[in-house]
Amino acid sequence: QKEVEQNSGPLSVPEGAIASLNCTYSDRGSQSFFWYRQYSGKSPELIMFIYSNGDKEDGRFTAQLNKASQYVSLLIRDSQPSDSATYLCAVNGKKSNTGKLIFGQGTTLQVKP
Amino acid sequence: GAVVSQHPSWVICKSGTSVKIECRSLDFQATTMFWYRQFPKQSLMLMATSNEGSKATYEQGVEKDKFLINHASLTLSTLTVTCAHPEDSSFYICSARRAGATGELFFGEGSRLTVL
After folding, report:
1. Which residues lie closer than 8 Å to B27 by C-beta, 6 or more apart?
2. Do A39 and B107 touch, CB atoms closer than 8 A?
3. Taking CB atoms and an 8 Å cut-off, how many pairs form between chains A and B?
4. For B3-20, how does the pLDDT look when each residue is reduced to its tens digit (9 = 90+)?
5. A96 shares contact with chain B (CB less than 8 Å)
6. What distance in Å separates the CA atoms of residue A102 and residue A62, rounded to the nearest whole number?
């Protein structure tokens, strides 16, 4: 079992719709969770992070964490074509102060005009 | 957000030579930097953790002699790649962790290495 799993997609949504990206992780002791966006040929950029169970909202983005189910998701409201990218879920290991992140394989999102 | 600068962005090297990639944290001090490698359509794979003033910690399966890391200061880490085979061609990305409770990583722009 992979440590961090994501559906590779592509996930295709129409412009203006809600895109839902999902991620599961195997290490129950994981402390912090991150979502990165990566455009083709570019390096990842941080969208948001979440530590506590529940929802965390930042603009059009909402991260959701459920530690009991070992599940973290990212919702993108009012999706735009510029949101088309690969979204990487990353999980911090048990030794949270090391900053070592384990990445999922990424989900490719396509937002169609 | 924090700024991490990486260069060169593109580099070509011939088999048997080496190339140095620099990673700098521009507006914060980074006691720890990380080097990742990414092949096309694959996720980031951690190669090594670079600690200022000490030896880097390499992930299992990563050849220390081929990927030499030096973290000479709190704002600079370098990765020297010995270009042995075309299979060493990849996208190399550095990242730095900003001190604090959140622990998120900020990435450099990445360096695309092509080995001829």
Report:
1. B2, B3
2. no
3. 52
4. 899 999 999 999 999 999
5. yes
6. 21
